[in-house]
Task: inverse folding
């Protein structure tokens, strides 16, 4: 069974590192690094441009191993993106890129079907209405990193917030705000 959002557990775990503003900007803008593992040997090579496409493709696999349906969906919906990186995994493909200082990842199944997109951005860039709701529900908390996750039909946000005593992760979907995780800082 293919998990519909295989990287969400990773997103939740990784997003905890964003609770510290010192790491937020560095973590959001990292270049993917891969190593040899279950998904096979990896390399970071620039492949020749695809047919009818003037830009080179960067990937951990050769161009003919990228599913054509995933590639066409990406080109149609994200054609203005430059310098994306295609990563083939045991469960599908992750296409990552930076645009407007925001990291975005697009997830596809091995058969090329689009699963979802995840856009990482600074919490202060959240829309005004959501900011007001967060300030009302969590007074005194600062916004850290937010993730916008969309399956093409539905959008939800996962936002990291903190104050001097706690770090929390909240989810916003369909007008509802839900506390996902809360951690109390230990005494130092």
Result:
């Amino acid at each position: 069974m293919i998990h519909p959002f295989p990287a969400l557990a990773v997103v939740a775990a990784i997003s905890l590192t964003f609770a510290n503003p010192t790491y937020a900007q560095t973590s959001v803008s990292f270049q993917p690094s891969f190593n040899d593992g279950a998904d096979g040997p990896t390399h970071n090579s620039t492949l020749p441009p695809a047919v009818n496409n003037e830009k080179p493709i960067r990937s951990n696999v050769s161009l003919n191993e990228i599913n054509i349906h995933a590639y066409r969906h990406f080109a149609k919906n994200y054609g203005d993106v430059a310098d994306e990186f295609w990563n083939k995994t045991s469960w599908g493909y992750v296409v990552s890129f930076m645009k407007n200082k925001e990291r975005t990842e697009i997830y596809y199944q091995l058969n090329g079907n689009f699963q979802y997109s995840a856009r990482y951005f600074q919490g202060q860039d959240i829309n005004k209405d959501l900011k007001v709701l967060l300030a009302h529900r969590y007074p005194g908390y600062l916004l850290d990193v937010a993730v916008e996750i969309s399956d093409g039909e539905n959008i939800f946000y996962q936002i990291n917030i903190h104050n001097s005593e706690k770090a929390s992760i909240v989810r916003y979907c369909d007008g509802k705000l839900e506390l996902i995780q809360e951690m109390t800082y230990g005494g130092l």
Remarks:
- The mean pLDDT is 79.
